[in-house]
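#struct-help
A.M.: can someone run this one for me? Single chain, 188 residues.
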Amino acid sequence: MNNNRRSVWKVAIPFLSLLLLIVGVVIGIKSRNTITSHLSEGGQLKVFVSILPQKYFVERIGGEKVAVSVLVGPGQNPATYEPLPKQMAALTEANIYFRIGVPFEMVWIDKIQALNPQLLIVDTREGIKLRAMEGAHEHNEVEAGSEDHDHGSLTTKEVKDPHIWLDPLLVKIQAQTICRELSNIDPI
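D.P.: on it. Structure tokens below:
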């Protein structure tokens, strides 16, 4: 009887291992297909970016494999921008969104993610230390009664320069992030 149990386990363990391996592969393929399920007609990844310089970077890195759309067009202000309904509809079909830290993203990023839960949102500021803007400070009045109150003094907060697409060294870091994420989605 004891030998029968051992022989059953000798067969069952390899069978269960193989079954787990197959299930793992299927789940991996399905999760990759979830991201790539909304490819353009030409089989391209549908990519959204916030501003035009990003489009240039993504197109140079992704080549023919990406179809890039820009949210904030020429002459529009990234601080006060609101996506058009047509853009919001297109975002529901997008595969990846490269954010860069412009002000409108802070308000809209959660709404965009809610519209397309499978959308991969990548922050291209990853690995970049923002520099202080020379001569720029944000002034805030200190509340009366606080320990820092100095009879009408103001506090200054250093303003960080968000224009990371203008510095070639920072663009190199952004390009590495873009390349890595596009390769993760479509390694070919």
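A.M.: thanks! The longest strand covers residues 132-141.
D.P.: also worth noting: DSSP finds five helices and six strands in the chain.
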